[in-house]
Write a structure and sequence with these properties.
- It is a single chain.
- This protein is an alpha+beta fold and about 180 residues long.
- About 25% of the residues lie in helices and about 35% in strands.
- It is built from 5 helices and 10 strands, in the order E-E-E-H-E-E-H-E-H-H-H-E-E-E-E.
- The strands form 3 sheets. It has a 5-stranded mixed β-sheet. It has a 3-stranded antiparallel β-sheet with strand order 4-3-5. The protein has a two-stranded antiparallel ribbon with strand order 1-2.
- The two termini are about 30 Å apart.
- The relative contact order is 0.16.
């Protein structure tokens, strides 16, 4: 697939190399339901990077093909500002993680929190749509994925890259768990 700008319109041309995406669908049968399968219901994954399916011996779920254009046009990445202030920049002095010191070494302060939030959401969405994520932990809270974020250093030349942690939600939504999950 490739994109071409023409008179203010985005033209999308299909190619044979379109990524294959699937939607996890939990089918209600019987009385017992797996909490993990219920959390995966409606979530979108690149086929090659979907959680193991079937998830367990009596799994009622299926993987249904979803058009890549649906993913491209509808995927979102969202984060709560509180993940940056007070958490990441530790503005209340209650978090002992040291992430504020790391970002300060790169030239960032709480004044950059809104920019970081928007930039991380932008990169997470773009990389998710391209399938540039790794599956993380799956449990009764849902499926986590890791996405590498790259930002310019503010204190000197260069780029800093690090892992951010996201939760996959139904219909292509990502929700930020942690802005910095390590190198």
């Amino acid at each position: 697939m490739y994109y071409k700008q023409h008179k203010g319109e985005l033209l999308i041309h299909k190619s044979t190399e379109m990524p294959k995406w699937v939607k996890w669908v939990h089918h209600v049968t019987g009385l017992m339901h797996c909490a993990e399968c219920l959390m995966l219901d409606g979530c979108w994954f690149l086929f090659e990077k979907a959680p193991v399916w079937p998830h367990h011996e009596k799994c009622h779920c299926s993987l249904e093909a979803i058009d890549y254009l649906v993913v491209l046009m509808n995927a979102t990445a969202k984060s709560d500002y509180s993940k940056f202030d007070p958490y990441l920049f530790n503005t209340m002095g209650i978090h002992l993680h040291g992430k504020d010191k790391l970002f300060a070494e790169w030239g960032y302060s709480v004044d950059d929190a809104r920019w970081l939030q928007a930039e991380m959401e932008r990169q997470a969405r773009e990389k998710y749509v391209r399938g540039e994520y790794e599956l993380g932990k799956l449990n009764l809270f849902g499926q986590r994925i890791n996405i590498i974020i790259e930002i310019p250093r503010r204190d000197q030349e260069g780029i800093v890259s690090f892992t951010s942690g996201w939760m996959v939600k139904p219909n292509g939504e990502l929700k930020l768990n942690t802005p910095y999950g390590g190198k």
